[in-house]
Specification:
The protein has 196 residues and is of the alpha+beta class. The chain is built from 10 helices and 2 strands, in the order αααααββααααα. It has 2 domains: 4-59, no CATH class; 65-194, no CATH class. It is globular and about 60 Å long. The two termini are 35 Å apart.
Length: 196
């Protein structure tokens, strides 16, 4: 592990575009001490000062009651698929499609009501069952994927908890910048569901 002095020296050697890229795309994973170095470097170079507020919003995670309230607000939205007012859950689906010379594995995470999520999982299982066998790799992985997605029906709450929490972590900056109103939450749920 590098010392803080070595990290500071490395940052001084980076180009402006590299520092901007770190601020915009990598700041979430940096230690607090390194964040201070990054912010100091942005100030020293007279880069766009909004990068500092960007770093602050990306790295100020939701904790405790604030996180619980946000997760509850997410779960209380209308289902993006059926528009029903049911509690939303995070669902994971795995699909295997095989062709004679290739296999594609698709892992999706979506936020839907329980019935729409179960339907999405069943659709993925059916697609895998009918389209997953047609290559060597697919032939070996299809039974495993079908079994895994079938068993995951028993752990909907646990998987949902993981998916919803990771979604909040990935969109922390957006929530910090735009708020946690229903319209922002709906937009971020739709973005997540369509980005898979």
């Amino acid at each position: 592990m590098y010392s803080l002095d070595e990290i500071k020296e490395n940052y001084r050697g980076f180009s402006d575009s590299k520092v901007e890229n770190i601020a915009k795309n990598e700041s979430k994973g940096l230690r607090k001490e390194v964040l201070s170095i990054l912010k100091d470097e942005i100030k020293r170079r007279n880069l766009n000062i909004s990068l500092i507020s960007w770093v602050d919003t990306e790295t100020k995670s939701f904790d405790g009651d604030e996180r619980r309230v946000l997760l509850k607000k997410i779960q209380e939205q209308h289902c993006p698929k059926c528009s029903g007012k049911n509690i939303l859950y995070g669902f994971e689906t795995n699909t295997v499609k095989s062709f004679l010379i290739g296999t594609s594995f698709i892992k999706d995470e979506v936020i839907l009501c329980r019935s729409c999520g179960k339907q999405a999982k069943l659709n993925a299982i059916l697609i895998t069952f009918f389209a997953g066998w047609w290559s060597g790799k697919g032939f070996l992985s299809t039974p495993f994927i079908i079994l895994k997605d079938t068993v995951n029906f028993l752990f909907i709450n646990k998987i949902s908890h993981r998916i919803l929490n990771s979604s909040v972590d990935r969109t922390t900056g957006s929530f910090r910048r735009y708020g946690t109103t229903d319209s922002v939450i709906i937009r971020l749920i739709n973005w997540k569901n369509n980005s898979v």
